[in-house]
Amino acid sequence: MVSKVLSFILTPIFRPIFRFLSPLGPCVNKSVSDSYYFSKKSKQELIYSSMGNWFELGKHKFPADALTFIPLANDIGKDKDHIFFQYQPQQVDYTSFNIKDKTILRDKDHVYYRPYEYSHQLLVVEQANPETFTYLTVDDNNYSWSRDAHHYFYYHKKVDVHYPSFKFLTAALVADHHHIYLAYGHELLIKEYVTAPIEKLARCYARMGHTLLYHHSYHGYASFKFDKIDRIKITDDEYILVNNQPIIKGVMLNTPVDTETFETFPDWNYIYARDKNNVYFEGERFASADLDTFEIVGHRYSKDKNHVYYEKEIVLDVDVTKFRIDDNMTATDGKTKFYQGKPEDKSNR
């Protein structure tokens, strides 16, 4: 709170000082880029400063012709002789260089991409056809995957897959008619041989015959082989029932459930679930929850007519009828504040 107050007070004071000290003159074309500027000293000089933040991110004069220079993207521009990435001239075909769909950097011979590491030279996507190259939208992995008419690319590197049969199963699991692959980091790893038809089930799950496949960027990769799969029920992206066996976040639980009545609680995804017999927290059964009166309070608290629970453990010495969520991730029954299911102690926060 103090820092916000100081910022509110000091910003109007220092803003004119930074403006006075700034080496940046007018933006060349702010509708295209907020990083290319004329020098304050002379409109014959150009300066590249990322987002105009010269004080923190620096500034770089560069040898472009100021009269003919125009920005093509936030960090790419050209003058009468050169294409520039940030403030460095590039080794591309000047005449044919263009930016397709605001994302694809190309000339008549190559597709280019911005370097992942600190560098000022555009890199070539080897073997990519500039006429047919396009980026793919795959869940949250936008721009990591791309393809042209004959190849797939992962982080701009060609991958050795069977192009006609290649398909996406989850955000990171892909397959062709030979293998199932895991996109891990910047690599494509072979995880399984294809032994049966493959189908996508949910965002994190796929099926190959009697094998269930799972991947999540945080929880990792897992596969489950069954003698036979009679039934699959999908409750959400992380929670799936195979026969009557729950699998949550890629872990098979030793808690058989009633498949017909099993469901997750609305708005709580895989965290809370129930069937006709039990209530579950992250797949683990509440031993003592009363089905008829069970309700979710929030912040991983729940309660029934008899108890308050934190996760699936009973909270002791609490008035169930008055229990509610308080501010700052705490809860209260009007007499005692609770943090993570225990009476609040500043030392355990």
UniProtKB/TrEMBL annotation:
A Pfam short name: DKNYY
Listed InterPro entries: DKNYY
Name assigned to this protein: DKNYY family protein
Lineage, highest ranks first: Bacteria, Pseudomonadati, Bacteroidota, Cytophagia, Cytophagales
